[in-house]
Amino acid sequence: MKPKFKTATTASVPKCRLSRLCPPQHFALHIRSGAANVVGPNICFDGKIIMSHVLNNVGPGLNIVVVNGESGVVEKSHYLDMNAGNPEDILAYLKEIKPGMIVLVASFDDVTKKMTDEMREIFVGMGSALIKSVKHRDSWVFAGRAGAKSKSLFEKQAAHDEKTNIYEGWPEMVEVAGCFPRNQTDRLTD
Question: Where are the transmembrane segments (predicted)?
């Protein structure tokens, strides 16, 4: 008599600390802003931490991950120094992001010192509804798509307010998490 063996099935585990699995054609993401100017932000995409304080690849300003919206391949990740950076270089970096790219952003420290209206408009073109209201020392996280026609569901802001700040002179950290859809060409502009 042959022994019967049960085959082990590998249960899928949700990525990026989500509570559930993402449906097909979606990527898991979890973005957390920095806390004050002390604890750096964290950006997880499709199960991999791309930027974090522990990886020592975050900095003051806008921490950005640019992902191919179809394949899910991380094209680049960088922080744009909004305190001491050159505004022309920051603008050029943002303008290089091609339509269809998924853009993940987490603030750390103050993001407004070098922020221009033109930079804000680029984020609006990625689906941001809050970037125009981001002020000095606000916490802000965002996931959008370059060339998007609709507003992103993945955006949160905590306003700097001396009466409600959690950290001395700084608002709470904010985070967004969920399942971001792969590119859908009908939702992109030309």
Answer: none
* Phi and psi torsions of 56, nearest 5°: 60, 40
Q: Which of 177, 169, 179, 173 is nearest to 157 (CA)?
A: 173
CB proximity list for 26: less than 8 A, separation 6 or greater: 179, 180, 181, 182
Q: 47 near 21, Cβ under 8 Å?
A: no
42 touches 56 (CB < 8 A):
no
Question: Which residue in the block uniquely carries the two structure tokens 């798509």?
Answer: 145
Edge to edge, the sheet with strand 48-52 lists: 48-52, 42-45, 26-32, 175-181
Evaluate whether 78 touches 93 at the Cβ level (below 8 Å).
yes
Contact 121/86 with Cβ under 8 angstroms? Answer: no
Give Cβ neighbours of residue 149 (< 8 Å, ≥ 6 apart): 187, 188, 189
The token pair at 54 is 């522990």
Interval 73-84: pLDDT, tens: 999 999 999 999
Backbone dihedral angles phi then psi of residue 188, each to the nearest 5 degrees:
-105, 155
CB 143 within 8 A of CB 105: yes
C-alpha–C-alpha distance, residues 187 and 27, integer Å = 17
